[in-house]
Amino acid sequence: MKLNLRKKLIAGVTFLGIFGAMSGVALAEDDAVGGWVEGEGYWTSKDNYEIRKSSSPTSHQGWKQVRERSGGKQYRAVGVTQWSKQHYTRAQMVGRVSGYVHADSYRVWGTDSTEARSPWISKNYQARTFYGSK
């Protein structure tokens, strides 16, 4: 009986640990119109694009910056969007497998041109940028 209870307790703790870890994962930008993903290229969301196709950005560029520091290399994502209406640009460094967001510029709002830069981090995660509007 004690062994069965112990197994249930271990299974419960394991489940809570996995569930808790997953709940900490930041999600990608759900309502973005488009963006760029390192190693994959540029994309647009057909669902969101159809809603907003009467107005699309003049351009969107995304890239990863790398700098050398005494402690080693640092990385960040950068995105720039040109759009004549109110819009945002967002830049993130994301775990390739987990999808966890390790560095985030959050939305940078503006009209005409916006530039978003994630904070510098020491791990070489995947750079992603997004853009969207209201």
TrEMBL record:
Task: Write the record's keywords in alphabetical order, separated by commas.
Answer: Signal
Q: Which domain of life is it from?
A: Bacteria
**According to the UniProt entry, where is the signal peptide?**
1-28
- What name does UniProt use for this protein? BH1753 protein
Origin organism is Halalkalibacterium halodurans (strain ATCC BAA-125 / DSM 18197 / FERM 7344 / JCM 9153 / C-125) (Bacillus halodurans)
